[in-house]
Every structure is written in structure tokens, then in C-alpha cells.
Amino acid sequence: MKTLDASSPCPCGRVAAKSLSYGDCCGRWLEDATQTAQPPDAQSLMRSRYSAFVLEREAYLLNSWEASHRPERIAFDTGVKWLGLDLRSHRSTGAASAEVEFVARQKPLHGAAVRLHERSRFVLEAGRWLYVDGDAL
Questions:
Q1: pLDDT band at 17, cuts 50/70/90?
Q2: CA distance linking residue 96 with residue 137, whole number of Å
Q3: Which of 46, 113, 119, 121 is the most exposed place for a label (fewest CB within 10 A)?
């Protein structure tokens, strides 16, 4: 598991008037050991899950995955450098569901950079947004 100072720029790249710090952005959810603080929408959950992949936060990723689609564990690729997240679109698909399209870029230790382009599905269960699955685009 990797660490990041709360004042560092957030890995997800969210920008308000300026780039948000990790502590003001995804860190408020990833660093909450009680997991009482939750992303308010599917877009914020998508961003926090990207940051969780960057920081290799398996527990957060598994806890933010809808139970029927959740893997037993996540194997992180050692040596992968995450290069950025581009959120292309997000939309509500129902009262308790949403989709987020994104491109995440990474570079393996040995090899060319890779783009992961996906349309992800999310559901709202018991007041928490959860990742269900996605389609590669």
C-alpha cells in the first residue's frame, strides 16, 4: 500500500478553482478507517476508486464494489505507474443507478503506456454508491 500526503495533488486530477489536494478530494474517503464518509455520487466514487488503484488500497476497492460482482481480492501490478484519469461523461440511469465513462492511463514497468477506456455502472444501496461492473470501450 502506497501513501500520499494530504496536501499533495489528488491522483484523480479533480479541479475546482484549482487542483484539489488529496485530503480535500479522494483522501477524505480513502483515509476514513471507519468508512462513514462516502462519496456523494457515482462520479466521485469513480474518482476515488482510481485514486485507490494508484495507492493500492485493496480494502477500499473491495468495500466500494457491489457484493454480487466483487472479486475475492485484487492483485495490483507491481511497477505500474498511473498517468492520469479523464472522466468523459457521467449520467443518471435511474433513481439509484448511474454510468460513468472514463479513460485511465497507466504505464507498466516494462512496456508502452496503456489506456483503459470503460463505461462503468454504479448503484446506490443503503445510501452508498457502489461500483457494479463496466464495459471496455
A1: low
A2: 24
A3: 113
Query: Is residue 122 predicted with pLDDT exceeding 70?
Result: yes
Is residue 38 situated within a structural domain?
yes
Identify whether the C-beta of residue 99 lies closer than 8 Å to the C-beta of residue 80.
Answer: no
Predicted local distance difference test score (pLDDT) of residue 119: 98
Strands 81-94 and 128-136: unpaired
Q: Give CA separation, 73 vs 28, 61, 69, 128, in Å.
A: 23, 9, 12, 21
pTM: 0.94
Asked if the structure places residue 81 within a domain, the reply is yes
Domains of the chain: total: 1
- In the chain, count H helices and then E strands: 3, 4
Q: Domain for residue 57, yes or no?
A: yes
**Looking at the domain assignment, is residue 18 inside a domain?**
no
Domain hosting residue 46, numbered range: 27-136
